[in-house]
Write a structure and sequence with these properties.
mainly beta; YefM-like fold; Mannose-Binding Protein A, Chain A; 2 domains; five-stranded mixed sheet; three-stranded antiparallel sheet; 11 strands; elongated; Collagen alpha-1(XV) chain-like; Collagenase_NC10/endostatin; CTDL_fold
C-alpha cells in the first residue's frame, strides 16, 4: 500500500491495481486512489484445474493466452523527445522536430518545447489532450501526469530517474553529446513567452542576448535560469496530439 501511494504520480488515471496479499482492488482517480467494493466470493469447484504454474526457467516467458498480433500494447500518451544535438539560440526548432521525428519513423506531429513569438509554450499541445494524456519519454515511461501539470507554476517538476531520450535513442541526461544538461524553453513557470528572454524569438546566437532555460539537475523542466544565447543546450520536442499507430 505504501509503495502504491508513493508511486501514484507515475500511474495513469484509470489504472487498476490488485493487492494480492489483501485481495483488494483499487483504481487510480484524479486526486488519488479509490478502493473498489467487490461482491461475494464465487468459489472455484474443487475438481477444477489449477492455475498455470510459473516456468522453472526464469528466461522462458509464460505462453500467451492469445496471439500477440491480436493484442495492442500501445496506450494513449504524448511523447517528449530531445533533438539529436544541442543547439544555440538561433534555431528553426519546429522544422528540426518535424524532420527528426520523421527520420525516426514517428508519423505524428512534433513541435518544439519552446515559447515563440507566435505561441506560448503552454498552448502547443492540442487543447482537448492537455489534461487527458500522460507525457512520456520515447520508451513510454511517464515524465508528467499530463501537459497542464507542467505549467502549474512549480517549474514542471519531474522524476529525474526517468530518462529523456533523443530521437536516436540516447539519454540526454548522461550522454556526453550534451555537455550542458540544460533545456531551452523561453517561458514563465506558467508556459507564457518571455520576450526579453527567448533569444529574440530563437533567431540569434549572440552572446550578449539571453534566453531562459532549465538545468535538469534541478528536477524541473521550467526552472527560471538565464543563459547566453551562444550556449548550445538541449532542445525538446513534444508530440502535440495523440495519433494511433504513430510509430511504425
Amino acid at each position: 500500500m505504501d509503495d502504491m501511494l508513493q508511486k501514484a504520480h507515475l500511474v495513469i488515471e484509470g489504472t487498476f491495481i490488485y493487492l494480492r496479499d489483501s485481495t483488494e482492488f483499487f483504481i487510480r482517480v484524479r486526486d488519488g486512489w479509490k478502493k473498489l467494493q467487490l461482491g461475494e466470493l464465487i468459489p472455484i469447484p474443487a475438481d477444477s484445474l489449477p492455475p498455470p504454474a510459473l516456468s522453472s526457467n526464469p528466461h522462458q516467458p509464460p505462453r500467451p493466452l492469445m496471439p500477440l498480433s491480436s493484442v495492442s500494447y500501445e496506450r494513449p500518451a504524448l511523447h517528449l523527445v530531445a533533438l539529436n544535438t544541442p543547439f544555440s539560440g538561433d534555431l528553426r526548432a519546429d522544422l528540426q522536430c518535424f524532420q527528426q521525428a520523421r527520420a525516426a519513423g514517428l508519423l505524428s506531429t512534433y513541435r518544439a518545447f519552446l515559447s515563440s513569438h507566435l505561441q506560448d509554450l503552454s498552448t502547443v499541445v492540442r487543447k482537448a489532450e492537455r489534461y487527458s494524456l500522460p507525457i512520456v519519454n520515447l520508451k513510454g515511461q511517464v515524465l508528467f501526469n499530463n501537459w497542464d501539470s507542467i505549467f502549474s507554476g512549480h517549474g514542471g517538476q519531474f522524476n529525474t530517474h526517468v530518462p529523456i531520450y533523443s530521437f536516436d535513442g540516447r539519454d540526454v541526461m548522461t550522454d556526453p553529446s550534451w555537455p550542458q544538461k540544460v533545456i531551452w524553453h523561453g517561458s514563465s513557470p506558467h508556459g507564457v513567452r518571455l520576450v526579453d528572454n527567448y533569444c529574440e524569438a530563437w533567431r540569434t546566437a549572440d552572446m550578449a542576448v539571453t534566453g531562459l532555460a532549465s538545468p535538469l539537475s534541478t528536477g524541473k523542466i521550467l526552472d527560471q535560469k538565464t543563459y547566453s544565447c551562444a550556449n548550445r543546450l538541449i532542445v525538446l520536442c513534444i508530440e502535440n496530439s495523440f495519433m494511433t499507430d504513430a510509430r511504425k
